[in-house]
Amino acid sequence: MTEEESPGTLRRAYRTVTPGYKPRPNTEMNSLGWAMFLVMVALLVPLLPFAVAVWAVAKLLDYLAGRNGGTTE
C-alpha cells in the first residue's frame, strides 16, 4: 500500500459553499465600538458627582458609626 492509498491521506480537495476567510481590519465594528464608548462616557460623566457624593456620605456614616461605638460586641 503506497502513501497515496492509505486511508489517512486526503485524496481530493473538499469543496465548500462559503468562500475562504481573508483577514482584514474591521473598521465598521471599530467605529461602532468607539461611538458606543463615547455615548456611555457622555451619559456617565454627568452622574459622577452624584456617585462621589453617595460614596462620601457612606464613608462619613461609617466613620460616625465607628466613633460612637456602633460596634456590636
UniProtKB/TrEMBL annotation:
Membrane-traversing stretches: 32-58
Presence of the UniProt keyword Transmembrane in the record: yes
This protein's UniProt keywords: Membrane, Transmembrane, Transmembrane helix
Pfam families: DUF7535
InterPro entries: DUF7535
Protein's name according to its UniProt entry: Uncharacterized protein
Biological source species: Halogeometricum borinquense (strain ATCC 700274 / DSM 11551 / JCM 10706 / KCTC 4070 / PR3)
